Amino acid sequence: MSQNQLVISRFLITHCVADASIIGFVSEFSEPSPSLEKDTWVEAEGVLDITTFNGTELPLIKITGLKKINEPEKPYLYPISIKIL
Where are the alpha helices (DSSP H) in 1-85? Predict the structure, then answer.
């Protein structure tokens, strides 16, 4: 990835935390990306586009605004078909 790119991602859990996998979007700034510490929560605004990574087309967010936020109350994503009790 170039210096103006980063991946904005979340953990997706299908059964339990042990099976968590990362899903996210390649994101791109018009200049080098701001320095963010690992595991920083952000809220991004931008325009969806397409990029190629290792020969595969992927969605790309062209960032127009970014701000740090607090970790949400429920930080993990769960598939829609699973009911959380």
Answer: none
Task: Quote the tokens at residue 57.
Answer: 């087309």
pLDDT in tens, 20-55: 899 999 999 988 777 888 889 999 999 999 999 899
Tracing tokens 């109350």 back to the chain, one arrives at 73
Q: In what order do the strands lie in the sheet with 42-53?
A: 5-12, 21-28, 56-68, 42-53
Q: What is the pTM of this model?
A: 0.77
**For the chain, how far is it from start to end, CA to CA, in angstroms?**
39
Angle at 30 between CA 61 and CA 39, to 5 degrees: 55
